[in-house]
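Mods, move this if it's the wrong board.
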Amino acid sequence: MTSEERREARYQRRVAARKAKKKTNCAKFDDYGAVFSYANLYRSYKRCRCGVAWKASVQKYISNAPLNVYHTFKELEAGIFKSPGFHEFDLYERGKHRHIRSTGIMERVVQRCLCDNALVPMLERSFIYDDGASMKNKGYDFAIGRLTAHLQRHFRRYGTEGYILLFDFTKFFDNVDHDLIKADLHRVFTDQKILALTEHFIDAFGDRGMGLGSQISQVLALASANRLDHFVKDFCRIKGYGRYMDDGYILSQSKEYLVALREHLREVCAELGITLNDKKTQIVKLSRGFTWLKVRFFLTKTGKVVKKIYKRSVTRMRMKMKKLRKKLDAGVLAFPDIWTTWQSWRAYAQRFDAWHTIHNMARLYYQLYISDFLGTA
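Not the wrong board. Structure tokens:
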């Protein structure tokens, strides 16, 4: 046996060992019967009702929950479960139009059971660590923390010299390619019933795109750009990279390198059916500061990463406090509701280096709501 043959034999043994290990570890996630057991469905129901138990439709479901979950379990067992459709409506958030396709409590239970016990455990194995959305123990704070860590690492090597490429996807959810997602699912799963049910949920959104308002949309949309993450991390060998759903960043000492890399990103995104937003995709010098996920970042000469609240969000909160005062005077709102709003914003603001901002907002709150009561007393 030649040395090349021995290397090939060792490689094949490693591949076989990895496949055997994956089959052992993932067997319960690739088994339709194990995924949609009654225990898993009931556990998913209890999670789905958190925070929405005040809704009439949810209360109706809760009133006879064991039997409702059992009916769903029998439909899934017989393979006859079908999506009842969406409740569609429009939202306008800060002037931006969002079309929401919300699912009912019954379908949410099934989707959560599918995601928690099959899709997430199988798909997240291929996600990069710096992908911070929709996963357990990750989220907004995780993404901000990873960017902070990347900036600190960059400072230790290059100081404040360097640039950051900020990118954003145009209508990310609306442009998810169904064929690519289904191909990825077929590479991961072997159980045909799990694949059929997942494709049924995907096809409910039409020929292309995933709607806002359901858990399966979040998970599959996150997976749709996974190839881009690995292109940057594995092929380009860039450590200072992170993504939070449709917002991402890349750190580098060289502006020319980022300019060339931006064109490669466009090519990879085109293969995935994703379009970069030209207005929001920009290269910024680190010493000038930049905004990502509504947070203003500054890298100081001492290496400290200063995080400031986005100025527009502070302005909106001041306007909101004044409007709430008018609603309080009109008897539309009670004071405890306003106090909860103020406490929520203050808890959010304390994440940042914003002592003076919080102090000024507290002064406005005192002037609007507290001084009148003290004066009356």
